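Interim report, section 4.2 (structural modelling).
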Amino acid sequence: MDNLFILLLLPVFGALVLAFVQQAKAARQFALLVSLVSLAFTIPFLVNFVPDASMQFEQRFAWIPSLGIHFHVGIDGISLPLVLLTNGLVPLIILAAFSYDYKGGFYALVLFMQAGLLLVFTALDAFAFYVGWEVALIPIYFICALWGGENRIRVNLKFFIYTFLGSLLMLAAIIYLHLQVPTDDYALSSFYQLALDSSTQRWIFWAFFLAFAIKMPIFPFHTWQPDTYTEAPTAGTMLLAGIMLKMGVYGVIRWLIPVAPLGVAAYGQLALVLCIIGVVYASIIAFKQRDAKRLVAYSSIAHVGLIGAGVFAWNVQGVQGAIIQMVNHGISVVGLFFVLDIVARRLGTRDLAAMGGIAKPAPILAIVFLVIVMGAVGLPLTNGFVGEFLLLLGVYEYGVWYAVFGGLTLILGAVYMLSMYQKVMFGDVNEQTAAFPDIRGSEWLVLAVIVLLIIGIGVYPGPLLNISEAAVAELVDKVGLIGKN
Amino acid sequence: MIELIWLIPLLPLVGFLVNGLGRNVLPKSLVGIIGSGVVLGAFLLSCGVFSMVYSARQAGEAATFTQLIFDWISAGNLHVSLSFLVDPLSAIMLLIVTGIGFLIHIYSTGYMKHDPGFAKFFAFLNLFIFFMLLLVLGSNYIVMFIGWEGVGLCSYLLIGFWFKNSAYASAAKKAFVMNRIGDLGFLIAVFLIFSTFGTLEFAGVFPEAATMPMGDTTLMLITLLLFIAATGKSAQIPLFTWLPDAMAGPTPVSALIHAATMVTAGIYMIARSNILFTLSPITLQVVAAIGICTALLAAAIAITQNDIKKVLAYSTVSQLGYMFLGLGVGAFTGAFFHVLTHAFFKALLFLGAGSVIHAMSNEQDMRSMGGLKKQLPITYLTMLIGTIAIAGIPPLSGFFSKDEILAHAFADNKLLWMLGFIGALFTAFYMFRMLFLTFFGRFRGTAEQASHLHESPASMTVPLIILAVLAAIGGFINVPSALGGGHALADFLSPVFADSVAQTGTFHLDHSTEYILMGVSSLAAVFMAVVAYRQYVSKATIPAADEVSRGLLARLSYRKFYVDEVYDALIVRPLNALSVFLHRVVDKSGIDGVVNGLARSVGESGKGIRLLQSGNVGFYIFMMVIAAVVLLAYGIFNG
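Predicted structure of the assembly:
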């Protein structure tokens, strides 16, 4: 049952069928079914996984032999949390979209994107990685272009140009690296063995870094993000923020740092500084946002900045923190966007000034939202704390002041998150919010799962940390960064 | 008994879950029974644990017990376990938290009886007890930090309990954010401790630290950072302004969280880490200086406040300042002693104020009170005891604990003693002012309020009476040798502070000096009580209305030295302006402007992209999927 190939193909076949389903109800039910089957197929991987540093469940066959391209995938402790995240979140995202009358095409795109994401997180061949990267990108482009808000075309163009530029640079780097490989293939292991000189590694660093930095996004490559997150339909925003941005972080851990360690030695500190700037910069901008979705978009830049900083600190705590925080951030951000979607759908606006007092008519939503907000500000016994603690500890070991500035997220995050919570939930009700119906049905289900995950991981993070521990320790050990202070 | 430690925090957690989940179905009476019952259970268990610790101490042992629950976070060389530590210090804190907590739960069944959020209130209160117990029981800095931040959450929820009022909701947010500033200090201190000692367990850190030299720079940094954390949680300069605002919460919350327990967490944490502080003389000086400044500033504000809860809030800030003064001059036992007695008399005073507010139909302005001792005799008598206790008049509890701190201050630095003495004068004055304005003279409220005046029900007066007894006699657990006492508390706690005492030696002040100090401060307190009596009873002065112009000093005090306004002008507004600037100018015009310029040039030269906007998208999707499948199939069949 633990055939990785099947796991990757399931959503593709689902998408193929869904492309022809016109009836909305049938489409969403089938999409949910496919995503749940995918999730069920993930369980054997979890059960059979051996928590050591080895690559497991490998599948490899020649794909385009004349070009040295192999379809080579596998899972290790670094991939598995992200595979779990992807297959765990997609059913929630589909369920969260149940209030909209999307036809089969929409769900086909979602599932197709899921396949791309899974390929990115499991690829052991650079070409396969690149294919996954693009396969994940194109559907989300259509989702935003077809179901987005008023400004979707303009915003989408920017999004496309940004990410396309990044992809192009990465493709150039991959082809260059391939040409240096003596065995004439694209294998990750071959890339790892290349001993390129420092100046080559430096431009390789930039080519990969820009692609990943745009995707995450890291300051100052982020300006597509608030617009795109805001204009995209909520399901699209969830896919982008919940899963897709992790492609960038994963790319840094799996490809950038091990392939170009000398480049990282030269520019890693700069990258880390950019990440930390992003934490403070985006947090401060988030203070005064009136559009709830845009506020969370900026908060996401801040959170991802800290994740990036943990990765570039390149020690066990930092990278472990990054991996668990990728999972946590995915859960939290999907929860946040879903709550805001519920509120915006009922009030017809995302303007925080038009909200207020919702805790009174909708106490359950208020509790759920509070738990999600507390997870986002990293309160102990929520998942956010575990990640933030490890990340900051990792960054601290890299340099005290980075941790102090990165740690400002503790304060600034509380400011904007609690301001948002207060504006939505507290105060007196107005005409619109007085009759606000509390959550029900599928909303209840999605949020209950999210709340349980937030508290569950927060109270007992051991099993999740244990998955990646050995793999991270070995990778960090193997790729010692020279010139790190 | 000791293997049941885990049950102590678990009981209130269960109470939180039951009352939280069942808040719509459980009847109020049952909610009250569950909410109070779990805390009573925790209290009984704590008594059992305490008696074990006590007998171990009698047998001359250090009486330290730990219990591992599970390994919480592991990464590389970091191993954090969820584990508990019971020793003399935490044993006493257990009694305070669960004992006073129980009384306040009982009180709340009466005070909150008519509130629609009754069950929610008890759920939050139970959750608070849970986190406070984690804070107290943690055997390492991380478990302490869980509790530390968790009580902050509960404080947030309970300050904003009546969230319909947006000023209350803002007060809640302010409390959380200001505490978070301190929490960052805590977290960085934790990192520094970990990188220095390689562990976060108290049992690993303290013995190691005891071998370090006096004045070690790392220790100084650690302790300064920990002290920043303490200024947040325990409302000291510069992070004290949230506590007066926190009075927006229901009065039992003010008594439990914002007087008796949570706000003393900073003192507990420093007392727990005493060896680190003892070896950092510079930090101790900072602690003492901040403590005495806060004590004076808050007392100077309290003398002109007219809101009965605000007086008590500033009084709390001021008394916490005394505790920090005690810590700063090395009087760890004295500071902790004051935590204990303050918990008795300040909880009593807040609950008494609650009883008054209850009787006055939610009126909190003392200018509308007066003459209440006839209608509220129990409240009056108990509050009188509380007032005498806090004023430092012997033989009530406050006298002994305050005296111990001041005696140490005298031995350390005469100026500190002098300032502390002045603060004590203020304290006696504003407390008796409050008492006289509330209970003496004639009634100044509306006829409507007058017709409703009543003594509170037994659920509220019984806790008052118990606390009054404790406030009266609580001081006898640590009578100084000058008065023929045996320092029972100091002996009990001695293993906790043993390393520090080994560094600094025991404190000595000859008995005649001590008698003089005691005599001076007791007489001064009585004198100030008389001054207040002449002003507010004999002359029957009523504080001026808000709009009346005041002299400079009175205005500074009345307007709380404009600290909030200064913070607003220096921090809040510039940050908000920066937010707008970064968003509009840097982000939109700056960075995005460059990107848009690029995009435009690309857009004009590449018509291909436009196809994506106008083409048949369904067809594209289909092609995309087909292409991918064909590509894969190609691989499979040619592989």
